[in-house]
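Quick one: structure for this chain?
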Amino acid sequence: MIKKWKDDGSTVFHFFRPYTDESESQDKNILLWVHQEQWQKELMCKYGNCISLIDATYKTTRYDLPLFFVCVRTSVGYCTVAEFTTKNEYANSIGEALDILKQWNPTWNPPVVLCDYSEAFTSTLVYLCDFHREQAWTRWVSNSQHGLTKSDAEILLTLIRQCAWASSSETGQHDINYQEQVKALQASHVWKENASVRSWLTSNLAQYTRSKSHTHTRKHVHRYMHF
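Got it. Here's what it folds into:
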């Protein structure tokens, strides 16, 4: 199909690297497909340098692969301006796809990106999507492997939310209210008696709760991004 599009002289932009045996190399043989139409390029150029959004679909496609949508906010709502598929969700795989999009769109340099947590962004302010953050918490506490009763799961969710919504400081200094909420979490029996909770939150608490979020954007994104 991609070869046919290219042979037809289409204005569609494609990058496709089929999967081969990963044991022969590290990243060079991993599946990657990036797609963008000319009209999408024009929208990205016009609207993409305010805020860009990246959302992934799971378990809704025929194949067990993450499908990512890059979106921007236009004058009439949110619009998809590029798509890409990778074999996995590793930062280097996502970063490679984004680098290709930057090559196709040299002026695309959004100061803010709204997405799930991702290490693919090193020089851009990342706003975590509240929906996906809450979803990650709920799935973790509901997993029976982590040894939480239903009551303890609700207690833990409440404590994490209090940390996340504690008033923040724009100066970057540690906020007193946030530190108080963290102490309350660490003083709880759920923290003290469950090693899995301590291990999970010791490495992820700051990322989950102190990364910036944007309520207005969040609501509109999930109104329009139902693919």
